[in-house]
Amino acid sequence: MARAGLTAERLTVAGAELADEAGFDGITVSALARRFGVKDASLYSHVKNLRELRQRVALYAAGEFIDSIAAAVAGRAGKDALVAFADAYRAYALAHPGRYAATQHRVDPELLAGSTVMARTADTTYGMLRAYGLAEPDLTDAVRLLRSTFHGYITLEAEGGFGHPRDVQKSWERGVEALHVLLEHWPANGEKHDD
């Protein structure tokens, strides 16, 4: 019988909190059960296994993440939108390291099926880039460039990887400005197509 008060949603939120405290890999059924003062087996009435629990946390974190970015970007375009997007991305990742790590994990299609997270993420990201006039495949290439640049910078920053005395915030701002210039002058697509 399911313990009163426990739901998959409550376990997911508690798992997200645990991720920020102990890291994404620190999410375990035992740690979560201790949080609720129950035996491990009690959680299996609400989630199938640890994999499902972690994927639920990943989906929950992805929703929080894109909602914070969408709120920051709302009503902005061009460079202003890019700066707002980048700053919201970085702020979330640094404030919620475990949840941010969760967003880097793939979620099974059946769990995604009932969620709007992927559509909201695409709408917000592609919407922000619309002002730069990019079309596919350049749009996807630009999204991948931004994601990898932001992720790499934030990962290095969080791990203390920048040893130079130059202010990290100033470098971030210049980097985002450089990305804006690049997006405005995106190179022509050199793909060759068979006729």
TrEMBL record:
An example Pfam family from this entry, by short name, is TetR_N
Q: Does the keyword Nucleus apply?
A: no
DNA-binding stretch(es), residue numbering of this chain: 28-47
Keyword annotations of the record:
DNA-binding, Transcription, Transcription regulation
- Domain HTH tetR-type positions: 5-65
What domain of life does the UniProt record list for this protein's source? Bacteria
Kindly provide the name given to this protein in its UniProt entry: Transcriptional regulator
